[in-house]
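Annual report, structural modelling task.

Input specification for the guanosine-5'-diphosphate-alpha-D-mannose complex:
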Amino acid sequence: MPIRQRAVLSVVIPTFNERDNVGRMVEVLDAALAGIPFEMVFVDDDSRDGTRERLCELSAADPRVRMVHRIGRRGLSTAVVEGILSTTAPFIAVIDADLQHDERVLPQMLAILQTGDADVVVGSRYTEGGGVGDWDAGRVRVSAVATRLARMVARVKLTDPMSGFFALTREAFDSAVRDLSGQGYKILLDICASSAAPLRMAEVPYQFRAREAGDSKLDAMIVWEYLLLLVDKLIGHIVPARFVSFMAIGGVGVFVHMAVLGSFVALGQPAFIWAQSIATGIAMVFNFFINNLLTYRDRRLKGFVPVTRGLLSFVAVCSVGAIANVGIAEVLFAGYRYAWWLAGLAGIVVGAFWNYAATALFTWKAK
Ligand code: GDD
Ligand code: MN
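The model returned the following structure:
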């Protein structure tokens, strides 16, 4: 049996509901990379629109087409990372499956890597000759702010650090892979901020094209994940981003708690211990729902039964925290004559640490 020629370039293509794009994708890559031994690795997060079946057909017709199928998980960054981990070629490219990136610049990207002058080549929309196509003014502005933030965090001067279109050497990837944050959409930024030594970057301009089939998956949640990525890269070596998120939400919960407690105190009833208990209960429910949405969005509890069960376990676990919370607050308030707000706050701090540790274990335990 003839041995297939070894791929020089592995092209990793994340997909989520891209049934009507993947066939065309294989065609355009085949045309753009004519003469270059390459392979295509599609990483699909269990799309239900028939993407997987389409990929099986494509793979049957062309052995250069492979697929990694992930179940029960979502995330562009981790999809790209796991796709790359399944390859062995010395050079790797990452490109969207929706034909918005211009595959015709891939040979130029590869040629730059092969000279050895750069570790990473980025397809840029914001350098001479690049462009964002038909984006509306709002998205252009959001992208500009995010780009500026990214330059501050990653130690590289890139015109388009948010690009999802880039190529890199295996060595560059290996130098970063164990320290990646894996948060959200911005895998290039993550790699640049995580590599052991600063990576040598090059840019190639391209025009971002309009999406013809399927829908964009970019939404408000992506913005939150992006902020968490920045937090993780700035202070992630000290505390995990999840803890920061939990505490930030807890901080907002403190305002909820204090507003309720303050109102009762202003009313003059019920007794302080009851006021603090009610305020704790309301803050608890608030914290459960917001944490389920943001801190644990990747393991989010959905549906009536899982949410109810989650809320009950959260309340049960936090009740222990709340007993400590109320107990400490009451002792400080009644016993030591602390101000109502200082007593309330001390109770909350003790409760918060317990809550984070215990709910991570019981309410949102990793599968
Ligand atoms: N496996 C997997 N899992 N693939 C995903 C997921 C996911 O959770 N979410 C999105 N994708 C795939 C899509 O199927 C598509 O091929 C590609 O990732 C990009 O997703 P889009 O939803 O089309 O993103 P976009 O066009 O709005 O955003 C593009 O521009 C951004 C810069 O503003 C992407 O190139 C981003 O990477 C880029 O940062
Ligand atoms: Mn897109």
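Strands lie at 9-15, 38-44, 65-69, 91-94, 120-124, 166-169, 201-205.
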